[in-house]
Design goal:
Elements (H helix, E strand, L loop, with lengths): L2 H7 L23 H14 L1 H26 L3 E2 L1 E2 L6 H12 L2 H34 L1 H14 L4 H11 L3 H26 L3 H9 L4 H39 L4 H10 L3 H29 L6
Antiparallel strand pairs: 1-2
Helix pairs in contact: 4-12, 5-6, 5-8, 5-10, 5-11, 7-8, 7-10, 8-10, 10-11, 10-12, 11-12
């Protein structure tokens, strides 16, 4: 091969490969708008029932406030008299004044404290007692007649007796609150025990489960929905009982605040006390329902 051909071949020789620098990771690409909209629509579809309930509830409250405003503005009198009923604006002004008053806040705090103590004692006693009554016939036959005699007695009728039983008004009010919540919790727990399928009990016994295991693994989970129903109902009755006791024998509390407003002819404070009672009762019942969803994740939403 001559020198001319060698010169033509030399430029065609491939040089050794040079390593390319490592690629710099690029910044995360923003999620495109259509994908974001898809996520939003998916979230709305998953929560449509909750959103629908929230919207219907808001409309109901708005309609209630509108009717209240119109009836008090025009002083409607059609057998039911709205002449002295305060308007929503007047009640809102009372709320603004009360929010800056430490005495009103102490009324609310004391009522919540009494509810918590009385309801906690009632739940601590009524739930185990209902479980035992449902499991053992002898205990049910011994306790049930006494509970049925005491259950129909209203909270107001217990006020004179509780004043004689307990050394202070505070303890008597807590006792009345306890009575109001005790019987709904007891009866619902007992009903839940009765509704347990016998086949589940026999199956556990065939597998060699002892009495304690049957209580823990069969009776208690099956009874929990009824227990929380009783707790919710008992909380509502506890508030009714508390307000009645505070109006009659109390010197502090939201019930006493409402009754004092009536005595002083402060109509807007009466409505404020009533609304405050309703909101506190709603919040306490919502807490029990939320606790029930946590304890019973298998339950229906």
């Amino acid at each position: 091969m001559d020198s001319t051909a060698l010169k033509l071949i030399e430029p065609m020789v491939v040089s050794p490969a040079i390593e390319a620098p490592p690629a710099v990771p690029s910044a995360a690409k923003p999620v495109p708008a259509p994908r974001k909209m898809h996520q939003v629509w998916r979230w709305l579809a998953l929560h449509r029932r909750e959103l629908r309930a929230l919207a219907v509830g808001a409309m109901s409250l708005a309609l209630f406030l509108l009717c209240w405003h119109l009836l008090t503005k025009y002083r409607v009198t059609v057998y039911i008299r709205f002449v002295n009923v305060p308007s929503p604006e007047m009640v809102f002004d009372s709320l603004m004044r009360a929010a800056r008053d430490t005495k009103f806040l102490s009324h609310v705090f004391l009522s919540c404290r009494r509810i918590f103590i009385g309801f906690a004692i009632a739940a601590t006693i009524a739930v185990p007692l209902g479980l035992v009554m449902g499991r053992f016939r002898l205990v049910r036959e011994f306790v049930f007649p006494v509970s049925e005699v005491l259950r129909p007695i209203p909270a107001i009728a217990w006020v004179p007796m509780s004043i004689m039983l307990w050394p202070s008004n505070e303890e008597s009010i807590i006792f009345i609150t306890f009575l109001g919540s005790f019987f709904p919790i007891l009866l619902n727990t007992l009903h839940g025990m009765v509704m347990v399928e016998p086949v589940l009990i026999r199956a556990a016994q065939c597998l060699g489960a002892r009495e304690a295991s049957i209580f823990r693994e069969v009776y208690f989970p099956a009874t929990l929905p009824y227990v929380f129903t009783g707790l919710t109902v008992g909380m509502g009755v506890a508030w009714v009982s508390l307000i009645a006791a505070e109006m009659i024998s109390g010197q502090f509390g939201i019930g006493y605040f409402t009754w004092e407003a009536y005595s002083l002819v402060q109509y807007s404070d009466i409505a404020l006390g009533m609304i405050c009672i309703g909101v506190l009762g709603l919040g306490s019942s919502a807490l029990i329902r939320g606790l029930g969803r946590v304890v019973m994740p298998w339950g229906k939403k």
